[in-house]
Amino acid sequence: MATMTEIERPAAPLQTETFRKARPDIVGPDAPESPFPIYMTGVVQKGFGRGGKDLGCPTANLPDEDALESMRSTTKTGIYFGYARVHPTVAETGKPGDVKDEELETYPMVMSLGWNPFYKNEKLTAEVHIIHEFSADFYGHRISVVVLGYIRPELDYTSRDALIQDIEKDKEVALRSLARPAYKAYETHAPSKAPSPIPY
Q1: pTM, whole model, 2 decimals?
Q2: Would you say 190 and 107 are in contact if contact means Cβ atoms under 8 Å apart?
Q3: CA-to-CA distance for 10 and 18, rounded, in angstroms?
Q4: Which of 102, 103, 120, 182 would bridge with 31, disulfide CB 3.0–4.6 Å?
Q5: pLDDT confidence of residue 81
Q6: Of the candidates 105, 64, 68, which has an alpha carbon nearest to the alpha carbon of residue 87?
Q7: C-beta atoms surrounding 44 within 10 Å
Q8: pLDDT tens sequence across 73-107
């Protein structure tokens, strides 16, 4: 059986005005259901650099094999939500990075799993946007992620503005969905639930 990184890039449906207007403000049941929660960890790599510059949404790019292995039980591409945390040291050197101590908290996140059809990516990627404005980049740091639910399918767009609108809506939906008690519990209790070797 082919792994997710070996699957040929499928055609993504085009985002339409009808789809945009029909989007719900909250997604998922009142508590995470199988296959969630899914735990992921990896060292943040430099990507295309367009998340922050083009879209106003900087992302942490996880290495494909490490990150996608944990998502194999849910092969659907699309946008997910949950929590993420940056670890304090740079993985390669073991030394502290530039992220401030007070920013080493667990924050809401949205994650794109797929080919990013607007940019015609040739490789499946996991791109995590942590909903917090960090004081510094954290390339080379390990991050831990707990994925708690699915927001929407991966879509293609006729314009960058339409993509940005959907990204902003994704963040709003994630925050509202995570505000429910069964999801919010993972903000503080994820460390005790995370299986070894994910050190929150």
Answers
A1: 0.80
A2: no
A3: 22
A4: 182
A5: 97
A6: 105
A7: 22
A8: 666 889 999 999 998 888 778 788 888 888 989 99
pLDDT tens per residue, range 136-161: 888 888 899 999 999 998 887 767 78
What is the rounded CA–CA span in Å between residue 105 and residue 101?
A: 9
Are 198 and 144 spatial neighbours (Cβ–Cβ below 8 Å)?
Answer: yes
pLDDT of residue 56: 58
CA atoms of 170 and 111, how far apart (whole Å): 9
35's tokens: 């296959």
How many Cβ atoms sit within 10 Å of the Cβ of residue 95? 8
Angle at 75 between CA 180 and CA 179, to 5 degrees: 10
Say whether 83 sits in a helix, a strand or coil: strand
Task: Give me the chain's average pLDDT, please.
Answer: 78
| Rounded Cα–Cα distance for residues 16 and 155 (Å) | 9
Q: State the angle between helix axes of 181-193 and 160-178 in degrees (0 to 180), rounded to the nearest 10.
A: 80
Torsion of Cα atoms, 114 then 55 then 36 then 105, to 10°:
140
Asked if pLDDT for residue 192 goes beyond 60, the answer is no
Q: Which residues are catalytic?
A: 127
Half-sphere exposure of 180 (CA within 13 A, CB side): 18
